[in-house]
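Practice problem: predict the structure.
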Amino acid sequence: MVCCSNGSLSAWKLRSLFSTPRNNFTNEIVERKSFELRFEKKFKDKVLDSYLPFVLERSKAIKEEKKVVRIHALGYYGEVDGGGGPWGSVNLDHPSTFDTLAMDPTLKQELIEDLNRFVRRRHFYKQVGKAWKRGYLLYGPPGTGKSSLVAAMANYLKFHIYDLELASLHSNAELRMLLVMTKNRSILVIEDIDCSIDLENREDGDEYSANPMIKKNQLTSGLLNFIDGLWSSCGDERIIVLTTNHKDRLDPALLRPGRMDMHIHMSYCTFSGFKILASNYLGIKRHWRFNEIETLMEEVEVTPAEVAEEMMKSEDVDAAMEKVVKFLCKKRSECVGKRDSVEAGGDEKKVIGKKRKARSRG
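Answer:
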């Protein structure tokens, strides 16, 4: 194959070499393939400085396009990495993308831009002396799409996912070993971080102690060291994602820049998020009940998962919209009932207080 680049001609030739390895007792012939590139000597600088880097970059891009994203977890199921390592993996067939996520459009765009900026700044991170890592904290009520967002990030970047459960680990050394064995261009995910570690009483202790609080403190120390300590330099182009339903329970030490660089609030379903769900589940962009639904959603708090569940109850668009409206009306009635109950309880306490004051005066 002959190529022309910047006025220089180059010829590629595929070569095959057949041989029998010395330690091969079956006399099996092994084929080794390689490409040979020929060009005139006067084009040497152009080929080495321009053409070959371009070919390698294109090869990397094509490989990434064909890459199958996998999700890794501890356990011997699916394919085991490294011929017997602790991480097992299966293909990530999660269909979530940024287009299907029912989250705030502005926040979604900010996240996409942040991810794009991160993956193209390899030399920048080296220049400023920082490990090529990025941390994201996803927080919000259950059912708001935190796990779906992780899948969308992996599908967008073509990064493998490592799903780590800290509760299954026994020591800081075990945690360090697992983290070092993760590959580059990957996302390390620790879900419900507030339930996995203790971030308020970090004290030195015996790493192998049976005391669960000491074990949590040791794992916390190991995790923080991997995020921005000396061990953070082990590997490149890594993303760390922590999720929680209760951000207020986390110690500020974990949330500071350099550890969790971007905090993403996965809120209750907004009307813009509802329209994305309507497009995904029902294939509609507008409907005569949209105005009514928008008004109701301003009065109640519902998750995208709850709205999606109502849409799935009927394949008929009008019937599905009716179910969504009834669900939102029911939620509003429940909210009003709770508010009235709280107010009634407050009034009752005031009356009791007045009676007690009257008795004390008497």
